Every structure is written in C-alpha cells, then in structure tokens.
Amino acid sequence: MLTIKNLHASINGKEILRGIDLTVNAGEVHAIMGPNGSGKSTLSAVLTGNPLFTVTEGEVYFNGKNLLEMKPEDRSREGIFLSFQYPVEIPGVSMANFMRAAINAHRTYQGLEPISASDFLKMMREKKELVELDAKLTNRSVNEGFSGGEKKRNEIFQMAMLEPKLSILDETDSGLDIDALRIVAEGVNKLKRDDNACMVITHYQRLLDYIKPDIVHVLYKGKIVRTAGPELALELEERGYEWIKQQVDEE
Ligand code: ADP
Ligand code: MG
Ligand code: MG
Predict the structure, then answer these.
(1) What CA–CA distance (Å, rounded) separates 190 from 187?
(2) Which of 13, 184, 210, 231 is deepest in the core (most CB within 10 A)?
(3) Considering only CA atoms, which of 92, 96, 156 is closest in space to residue 125?
(4) CA of 41 relative to ligand 2 center, distance in Å
(5) Closest atom, ligand 1, to C-alpha of 85
(6) Which residues contact 72 (CB under 8 A, 6 or more apart)?
(7) What number is the ipTM of this complex?
C-alpha cells in the first residue's frame, strides 16, 4: 500500500528526515515510536503534503501512485487520513457541514453523486455510536471548545466517516485519560480491516496495550533505527529510549 524509499525532508533548510525506508501493507498496523523531536510528526506531515516541509530526496508510492506529486487534498481523496497531534478548532463551521463537505469531496473524486441528506444522517449516527462520540458535539463548530479528549475522539469519528485506506494517528493518545484512551483505541480497532492500514505514532507504549501493532519502528534523528515486533514497544516501556540512542550514536 505505502512504500517509502530513502525519504529526506527539511524545514527552513534544516534537514529533519534523513533517509526513511518503510513499507506498509494492507491489513497491517505499524507503530512509529521514538523520542521527542525525532521527526515523527514531520513524517506524517510530509506524507500528507504539508507545504511547510520540503522533500529533498526519495520516493513515496501509495497504491502504485507517486504520492509526492499529489496535492494534499488528492492524498486525502486517495484514502490517506491524518489525525493531528493538536487538532485545530474551526469556529463557524459546524461538524455536520464540515463532514458532509469532506465526504462529498471524496465522492466527487470517485465519480459518485453527493451523499443524500438521509444517508448522511444515518452515517453520522452510526459512526458516532461506533466511537462513542457525544451526539451533541456534531451540532457544534469543529473542535471549538471541545476538551482534549473530545478533540481526539472527534479525530477518530472523522476517520470513521471517511473510511480511509491508510490512517496516520499522530500521538492520538497524548493528553487522554485511561477511559478516553480505551474508547479511542477501540474505535481504531473496530475500523481495522484487511484492506486498510494504520500507522500509530506514539511516544509511549500505553496506547499499544489497546491497539496491537504488527510492526514497531523506532525513529531517531530522522531515521528508522530499529524495526521489530510488538515486544520492542514493551522493551521501550521498560527501558526508555536512552539505550537505543546510545547504541545508535555509537553505530
Ligand atoms: P516528533 O514528532 O518526533 O516529536 P517533530 O517531527 O515534531 O518530532 O520534530 C522534529 C524536529 O523538527 C525537531 O527538531 C523540531 O524542532 C523540528 N521542527 C518541527 N517543526 C518545525 C518547524 N515548523 N520549524 C522548525 N523546526 C521544526
Ligand atoms: Mg513531539
Ligand atoms: Mg510529534
């Protein structure tokens, strides 16, 4: 589904990603872990086409298409979804209008008619239930005045509505209490299918108690320095990142 080859990216002339190689297949959940400032959010920003970052080298293919040549909105329409580390508030735009516009933008791209009002309402109801989103929140402006937990849950709601092929969750767990964490993780688990994939970016192993990754990567100084199974996340939980930093710095 996703193939990243030797990806380098910089911001304001400062190189942040320094040669990322990563392959994600349909049906897989990958955890991207790593100390603060290692480039995790940068990787998600580059994959979704954030114009602040410049790709200086490398290739990215998504379902056979050259992702780096696509506009951010087309990457979304092709099925890439990013849940932000810090979801933005959009005052004056209701959740319902926002979601309907997003869904119709995807449908138009696929050559489909806009969704009918009744189908849309039915879908909203089903997905709200799925992620246990407070029904009242969808009558409000996007994220405006939402608590931290509500914003994160709302991200998973948007993911459920858009049914992406590849979901990238950037520190969706940060700032969540244990109940919100469980609900968010359960939402992600319910949305998992053989034909979609997920990249879970997290500093801590906590979220991975609920979302079982198939493969765990450690990003450090803009490179993937370790790749292993779920046991790597447990080891990081126990030992922290210092030992990996030391090993890599010595290498
Ligand atoms: P992580 O998500 O792993 O904590 P980031 O991708 O946010 O790491 O950051 C990686 C590096 O890029 C850090 O050194 C950070 O300071 C730098 N960086 C990120 N965004 C910007 C920006 N907008 N301007 C300058 N430096 C940035
Ligand atoms: Mg960070
Ligand atoms: Mg980050």
Answers:
(1) 5
(2) 184
(3) 96
(4) 7
(5) 2
(6) 48, 49, 50, 51
(7) 0.95
Domain extent listing, the chain: 2-250
The predicted-structure confidence for 3-51, as pLDDT tens digits, reads as follows 999 999 999 999 999 999 999 999 999 999 999 999 999 999 999 999 9
pTM of the model: 0.93
| Residue nearest ligand 1's atom 27 by CA | 11
Which residues form the pocket of ligand 1, taking CB atoms under 6 Å from any ligand atom?
A: 11-12, 16, 34, 36-42, 52
> How confident is the model over 156-176, as pLDDT tens digits?
999 999 999 999 999 877 777
Contact 74, 36 (CB under 8 A): no
- Ligand closest in space to the Cα of 171: 3
Residue 84 falls in which region: left (phi positive, over 0), alpha (psi -120 to 50) or beta:
beta
Residue type, 8: H
Structure tokens at 187: 């939402």
In 3D space, the residue among 86, 181, 91 whose CA is nearest the CA of residue 144 turns out to be: 91
- Cα 33 to averaged position of ligand 3 atoms, centre (Å): 10
Gap between the Cα atoms of 226 and 221, Å rounded: 12
Residues 128-143 as b or e (16 or more Cβ within 10 Å = b):
bebbbbeeebbebbbb
Q: Which of 154, 149, 172 is nearest to 98 (CA)?
A: 154
Q: Cα separation of 197 and 42, whole Å?
A: 19
CATH topology of domain 2-250: Rossmann fold (3.40.50)
Residue bearing the CA closest to ligand 1, atom 21: 11
Helix (H) or strand (E) holding 127: helix 117-130
